[in-house]
Amino acid sequence: METGHAKNVANFGKIKTFVTGYGAAYAPANPKLVIAAITPKFTASDLAVKAVEPVHKPYKDAIDLRKTSFAPVNAILTSAFKVLKSSDGVSDTTVNDAFTLLKKIKGTNRPPKKKTGGSEPTPDSHSTSQQSYDMRLANIVDFIALLAATPQYTPNEVEIKVANLQAGAADLAVVNTAVATAYQPYSTALKNRDTELYAPETGLYDIAAKIKTYVSGITTLSATDKKLVTSLKFTKPLDKALHL
């Protein structure tokens, strides 16, 4: 998607160059369209687009680390549950409660799969994913607490001993929080970019459209000169994908 934003800025830069070349023939009444206004708009938009990638990578890295960290959880806790269930003296209530938590950890609170390909998260999609991981982590903590409160749970396997499970849950909490922390500057950069490029009336996209319309109506310009501007293409993401 970033290619589209950068292309919009590049084409706006071409517009700025072409209308400057028109000289006195380019004299819009709309103050947003004058060269003195579109020059800083180009600069601000260019900077806003370029500011996204430096904060996108830490967010992506945090997501990848969280995914990797949570990947073994289902197998490890399933093993712990089987040891619990195979232990003598464990009440049916405890087994049932552990099984209910395990089902939630493995299924109902699993974060939804997202399409790959570098697509940007919407505020809603990020929030949904973060809440899903938060809930999964809460159930993991509850599951381990149940094991810790069951004296009959004394596994010989090192990785499923209570102390190691608790340490693992603490590590998961750290990587989960890191995603939320990394999202904040990334979200701010996305909002700044989309505001500069796509805000109604003041965004680069709307200004470019008005410049093209104005240029098409300048009677002193040849069709060839007009086409330099009017043929330039601009794209806009769907409203639900914008961070405004």
Description:
The protein is mainly α. It has two domains: 2-51 and 193-241, no CATH class; 67-185. The chain is 70% helix and 0% strand. It is built from nine helices and no strands. α4 packs antiparallel against α5 (92-108), α5 runs antiparallel to α6 and α8 runs antiparallel to α9 (223-230). The protein is rod-shaped and about 95 Å long. The two termini are 16 Å apart. Mean pLDDT is 93; it is low at 114-118.
Q: Which segments are poorly predicted (pLDDT under 50) over 5 or more consecutive residues?
A: 114-118
Q: Write down how many β-strands occur, each being a DSSP E stretch of 2 or more residues.
A: 0
Q: Tell me the radius of gyration.
A: 28 Å
Distance between the termini: 16 Å
Number of contiguous helices: 9
What would the average pLDDT be, to the nearest integer? 93
Shape assignment = rod-shaped
Instruction: Give the strand content.
Output: under 5%
Q: What structural keywords apply?
A:
single chain, 244 residues, mainly alpha, 2 domains, 9 helices
Please render the helix and strand layout as text.
Blueprint: H1 2-21, H2 35-50, H3 52-70, H4 73-86, H5 92-108, H6 123-148, H7 162-198, H8 204-216, H9 223-230
Short description:
With 244 residues, the chain is mostly helical. It contains nine helices and no strands. 24% of the residues are buried.
